[in-house]
Amino acid sequence: MTNIIPRAPLIKTAKIAGIAYFWVIIIGLINGMLVVNRLIIAENNATTTHNIIANNFLYRFGIANDVIMFAGVVLLSVTLYLTLKNVNRNLALILLCYSSGLIVFPCFLYADSVDRSLFS
Asked: Whole-prediction pTM value?
């Protein structure tokens, strides 16, 4: 006997996942075009530092965009898990663990770049 899964909650969850995908892509493009291209100069740390100091608001805007994008990735991961767990629970869990790694790794990068003198 097969389990009959109600479609309405799955459709709602899939729509939320689609909106989260769109959210992550748009925020990532905005961050890449507006922040990274204007602040970071490859192979020139002095110019990059000068750009960050000169455009402090843009730098903070980029960090806020990253936090918003990470929230979108969390929402996307959870909604994809909820949508796909009825198809194959093990693969859905692997997807959730992989997505969690996508969130944790950049957080370590930000934590490593924080000025340690602020906390002493």
From this structure: 0.75
